[in-house]
Design brief:
5-stranded parallel β-sheet; 7-stranded mixed β-sheet; 435 residues; alpha/beta; Zeta_carotene_desat/Oxidored
């Protein structure tokens, strides 16, 4: 049988992974990217020798991203943070040793003895928690029943923030939060050498080698549907590409824009609450305090990490530092000075060695907050659009596995399974004219 013609709209990591997997499975794949370069939010730019990602980025070692990259033969280079010490908890403007294991837990002055024992029990019991039983329970509600001490609850909440990038624990599903925390405690994360642009380049190479045709600066107007089935892709210049399936890799609004007037997709886009963060990226000629590599806010939603201590992200001797404030939907504008104050505590004197800086007051971290009200990860839209045959979606807001980039990779893999399985075991897609 002639190979299915598949169009992938969007050249971020999720779109590239979907294109590569489908091409390897025998589909004829064309990827359309509206900008001049691939990568989307995974792009890395170089400023004065420093590699700037779009905010602090890390790959979960036990996550779907590493699984799919492994299937594609891509092995990210870098290191796991926290192995050199220098990790702190930030509370009331002071640095305390962050409890990361038995020794640091005993020596930290962050908690009293009773608090240390309760935190040890909480963390020790995490692997045994059935996260899927907590879909419709908020993380705050679950913590209130699981932890009795306010100070331990603060530490647990901080660990959830750093694992999920979500600060609104009152609405975040405990299922999603617990899964992220279990994954982080199991195997930590990887900071990637040369930035996430290196991942984009490697996956793009795999896709091209698999036969994917890549079209850059390609404006897609909409998906063409006939009798409830995808039959084509209309471009901005009016031309139509006959296809059997379309995979849209982007935000909820990007999917809705492909089918103007589709009430279901428009409602999903309107209901999706994005998760945001304020970020400050700093390239320093050196670290004023070489031993201070990480700080996690306990009484505030703060994060600061010297990514270059574990990944190649700058010139020899230089330091690439990320500072972030996890935002809730109710938060107002965040000032650059707020994030600078965190650096003043972790790395006093950093201004004297500043080489490059970038501040983003409201960066989209993920396009949909998995809420308890919506049923957690199971409440997210499925990779296959049920009411439009041959239409699929990929993104950090799609499917019931993972958060952040893991969800993008997992949904790409789910699209691969759905399309290739359908071709082998179920009624085949209606083939495009000329296929």
């Amino acid at each position: 049988m002639t190979a299915k013609k598949v169009a992938v709209v969007g050249g971020g990591l999720g779109g590239l992974a979907a294109a590569a997997l489908l091409a390897r499975g025998g589909c004829s794949v064309t990827l359309f990217e509206r900008s001049k370069s691939l990568g989307g939010r995974g792009q890395t730019s170089e400023v004065d020798g420093f590699k700037f990602n779009l905010g602090p980025r890390a790959l979960a070692v036990a996550g779907a991203g590493m699984r799919v990259l492994g299937r594609l033969g891509v092995k990210p280079q870098g290191s796991v943070p926290g192995q050199k010490g220098g990790t702190y908890a930030l509370r009331a403007g002071r640095l305390h040793t962050l409890p990361r294991g038995p020794v640091s837990l005993l020596t930290s002055d962050l908690l009293g003895l009773a608090g240390k024992l309760e935190l040890a029990r909480f963390l020790g019991g995490m692997p045994r928690v059935d996260a899927d039983a907590l879909e419709d329970v908020s993380m705050k509600e679950w913590l209130d029943t699981r932890v009795s001490s306010d100070e331990v609850r603060e530490v647990a909440g901080a660990l959830v923030r750093v694992a999920s990038y979500c600060a609104d624990l009152e609405v975040l599903s405990a299922q999603a939060a617990v899964r992220q925390l279990q994954q982080a405690l199991k195997a930590n994360v990887l900071y990637v050498d040369e930035g996430w642009g290196s991942l984009v380049a490697n996956v793009a190479t795999v896709a091209r080698e698999a036969g994917v045709r890549v079209e850059l600066s390609a404006k897609v107007e909409r998906v063409v549907v006939k009798d409830g089935q995808v039959v084509g892709l209309r471009m901005g210049d009016g031309t139509v590409h006959a296809v059997d399936a379309v995979v849209v890799a982007g935000a909820p609004g990007d999917v809705a824009a492909m089918l103007p007037g589709d009430e279901v997709l428009e409602q999903q886009a309107a209901a999706a609450t994005p998760v945001r963060a304020a970020t400050l990226e700093l390239g320093l000629s050196r670290l004023p305090k070489p031993q201070a590599l990480f700080a996690l806010g306990i009484d505030g939603p703060w994060y600061a990490s010297v990514h270059s201590a574990y990944a190649k992200l700058g010139p020899e001797g230089g330091a690439m530092v990320h500072v972030m404030k996890y935002l809730t939907e109710a938060d107002g504008p965040t000032s650059e000075a707020e994030l600078e104050s965190v650096m003043d505590t972790l790395q006093p004197g950093w201004r004297e060695v500043l080489v490059a800086k970038r501040f983003r007051p409201s960066l989209v971290v993920t396009h949909l907050l998995p809420t308890a009200k919506a049923g957690g990860l199971s409440g997210r839209p499925t990779p296959e659009v049920p009411h439009v045959g041959g239409l699929f979606r990929v993104g950090d807001w799609v499917g019931d596995e993972g958060m952040l980039v893991d969800a993008s990779f997992a949904s790409a893999e789910a699209v691969e399974h759905a399309l290739l399985r359908r071709g082998q075991h179920a009624e085949p897609l209606r083939m495009a004219v000329g296929a």
